[in-house]
Write a structure and sequence with these properties.
Blueprint lengths: L8 H4 L4 E6 L4 E6 H7 L1 H6 L5 H5 L1 E4 L4 H13 L12 H12 L3 H18 L5 H10 L5 H16 L5 H8 L3 H15 L33
């Protein structure tokens, strides 16, 4: 397990560097090994011992998205994520959450879903079918991102006549529609719309290896 001990950034920026190649075109990133290994169990294991990656000082992530990886690098060196208003909008942040889960980085995944929660609350937008397919294809059934998006789409189905649930089924053929319709069914039974915190709190965080959030905002319905 990666240590929870905080270290000054300057102590982790040593000359010990490694190369990460991301995506099908193998975009190269030259990064500080101590910083990577301090933040991620995935990188710590990859660059330790007798593994090929350790000997070559290189790691290949062909299935991951370079834009999402660059968001990860920004978070790695600054400790924060910007709001998803730039090119690509929220899609790179969904990819970032998936990447964080793969890298066993709960803090990064929690930061990514916080930014998504703020975006969807501010922009009053909903995940589209392509995003739903990606999320349900690349995450586990227990994923907090699945839980968040299922509830968001359920709200869209209940409040927007133009939102077609069968397109989700026809395009994805996953359990996504089942997860979404559970929230719709509950709303019909209780005669109340699903609610999502307006401001990010600990609701959609993972805390298997990280400390739970100390402060929680009040729940208010988000329509």
């Amino acid at each position: 397990m990666v240590s929870n001990e905080r270290k000054p950034l300057v102590d982790l920026l040593t000359p010990d560097m490694v190369d990460i190649y991301v995506g099908s075109k193998r975009k190269q990133y030259h990064l500080h090994k101590p910083l990577l290994c301090h933040q991620s169990e995935f990188f710590k294991k990859a660059f330790s011992g007798d593994f090929k990656e350790s000997e070559e000082r290189a790691l290949y992530l062909p299935d991951d998205d370079p834009t999402a990886f660059e968001l990860f690098i920004h978070w790695l060196y600054t400790g924060r994520l910007d709001e998803p208003w730039g090119p690509g909008g929220r899609r790179p942040y969904i990819k970032l959450y998936i990447l964080a889960s793969k890298l066993c980085m709960e803090s990064l995944a929690n930061a990514a879903i916080d930014r998504l929660q703020v975006f969807y609350a501010t922009a009053q937008r909903y995940p589209d079918v392509d995003m739903i397919v990606t999320i349900w294809s690349d995450t586990l059934p227990s994923s907090k991102l699945r839980q968040f998006c299922a509830k968001k789409v359920a709200i869209a189905l209940l409040t927007r006549s133009s939102f077609n649930p069968w397109k989700i089924y026809l395009d994805s053929k996953t359990e996504a529609l089942t997860d979404i319709m559970l929230h719709v069914h509950e709303a019909w039974q209780t005669k109340q719309l699903p609610s999502i915190p307006v401001e990010p709190d600990c609701t959609y965080h993972e805390h298997t290896t990280t400390e739970k959030c100390k402060d929680r905002t009040l729940w208010r319905p988000l329509l």
